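Title: Prediction job returns without error message
Component: structure pipeline
Severity: low
Priority: P3
Assignee: unassigned

Description:
Job completed but the reporter wants confirmation the result is attached to the right record. Sequence as submitted:
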Amino acid sequence: MTPKNRATLADRVIKAAEAALAAQNYVSPIDVLLGIGWLDPGTVRRWRQGQIDCIERAVQTNLRGISEAMRLLRSWAAGKGLIASETDYVARTPQRQKLRFSRSGNPPIEKLYRTHWISPELTESKRERLAEKASRAPELVVIRPLKPEWTCHRCGGTGALLVMENPGPACLRCVGLDDLEFLPAGDALLTRRVKAKSGRSAVVVRFSRSRRRYERQGLLVEPGALTAAQRDLTERRRD
């Protein structure tokens, strides 16, 4: 990379990093790669859903360019006095596997990608909450399809709900969610309580043709958790 190209890249990295820091009080390598246009949000979404094996394969430049951008980010973060915080990245899949960043899977490289840089202006408690939120496993998403005619890529079956996987749609039995019970949206208090009690849960969505987006229909939760939450609310309302 020529000095001129390196200087241009540095300007782009710094601009992207400062925008992310201002918006969320931390900046990550993924934020910078998105900000400089080497990644697009749709690609990151598919990666988080486990549909892309490693994010480096989707970055629109070579490994040397990625390495230089990462180095520039670390240099800028150190100069700003930002605090490094290693973050867990977990796939939005029932298996909850760790997401991979690099083609090599080299642990030191993976750690560089997982490192978030947090504003030192936050209090220690706020930094801890921010780090905890960033490491929290994302909600599982189950789709209620518009068309009932679909086939599970694993077993050849079908059903009212599906989970999208890289090879295609999968039924709830094959992904291990068929024991969960559907709780329709509408009762916000019950939803919060049952979600807190349920060890496993998934958001059910359906595509709205008129609004051109997926909208929440409710939750899949453990039956025991739903019964307990309903009992708690009944007793509370009785009192």
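Comment from assignee: result matches the submitted record. The radius of gyration is 21 Å.
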